[in-house]
Amino acid sequence: MRPDRLTQGQLNRATLARQHLLERADMPPLAMVEHLVGLQAQIPLDPYTGLWSRLAGFRPESLADLLVRREVVRVVVMRGTIHLVTSDDCLLLRPLMQPVLHAELARHPDFAPMLRGVDLDPVLAVAAAALAERPLTGPQLRATLAERFGADVAPALAYACRCLLPVVQVPPRGVWGKTSQVTVTTADAWLGRPLAARPSIDDVVLRYLGAFGPATVADVTTWCRLTRMREIVERLRPRLRTFRDENGRELFDLPDAPRPDAEVPAPTRFLPEYDNVLLSHADRARVVPERRRDPLRRAGGVGSGSVLHDGLVCGVWRIQRAGSRSAILAVTLAERMPKRATASIAAEGRRYLRFAAGAAASQVTVSVADG
């Protein structure tokens, strides 16, 4: 029996439905963080924007409280990047993603040569003991290591600790309305529980499909950066439904997951600078049209978020502040759009600006990228 075929439009709507970007969900923030298998968070406040676009009535204090209560944490997991995950997922995902961090350490152009042949066990023991005693900033950890192993090698050793120890970033880092330099401790010290002894990658792949599917094996690999994902997906095949995309690639999905029609309306949504819906597929065409990529690249850059309209990225946004009392949301579109679309983008932009800037919110501007 030949697998069913899914069009690009159907893939788009299926993914947006799983991401709760077709309709804001009425669920607690903790449940959404768990459903999404975490939110990318190297920009500390990105998860707040991501949740605002997915949850009805989301208040930033509700996520900040979860961080302070240690129900969610900031930790390096998928793709070797900082994610905001539930405390349970921290203990599950961190050991599963260790091969990614080993590879990152091995290919570091400066530190890998310095660490070649170095016995890191005593280094990790010293660092783990120091971090269990109290959270440390980067300079404090380097100073601790320098005292025992020498100042010249301390930066490389600290980076090894970042990759080989399950360190988490502690509040107030990532707390709405507050700023703080990165301060870390170990996950077991912060959460009072050990890492999962036998974490199941199979369960995690099924959760990925629930939040990002339908997906190819290459998509799964792109999301986590782990290797040998083909054998894991093949092991799961009896539990999955298969499709083909417009290019004939095999897609895997949960049998009962939502797959709306391509014509289901997709409202305007504002996404943060880094959002996993844009980063978790080998082929990003399901959300980022090829023709818009160059204009978006020229218009965006560091500090820019993305605008979705009719399910697709159509522009970038940035908040421009003039002191503490004025904030302008500037939207730059990749191409000229109908007036109704532009009005929808401006209206959602005003709602987002009130959320992000509060009393400082002043106006929204919408322009088209040059060239």
Mean pLDDT: 95
Global morphology: globular
Secondary-structure content class: alpha+beta
Question: Over all CA atoms, what is the radius of gyration?
Answer: 22 Å
For the largest sheet, list the strands in their spatial order.
Answer: 2-4-3-6-7-5
Listing every helix as H and every strand as E from the N terminus to the C terminus, the arrangement reads EHHEHHEEHHHHEHHEEHHHHEEEHEEEHE
**Structural domain tally:** 2
Biggest sheet, open or closed, and with what strands and sense? 6 strands, antiparallel
Low-confidence parts lasting 5 or more residues at pLDDT below 50? none
Number of strands: 14
Strand content: 15-25%
Helix content: 40-55%
Number of helices: 16
Measured between the Cα atoms of the first and last residue, the distance is 48 Å
Structural description of this entry:
The chain is an alpha+beta fold. It folds into 2 domains: 8-191, no CATH class; 288-368, no CATH class. Helix content is 42%, strand content 17%. It is built from 16 helices and 14 strands. The protein has a 6-stranded antiparallel β-sheet with strand order 2-4-3-6-7-5. Strands 10-11-12-13-14 form a 5-stranded mixed β-sheet, sandwiched between helices. A hairpin with a 5-residue loop joins strand 12 and strand 13. The protein is globular. The model has no long low-confidence stretch (mean pLDDT 95).
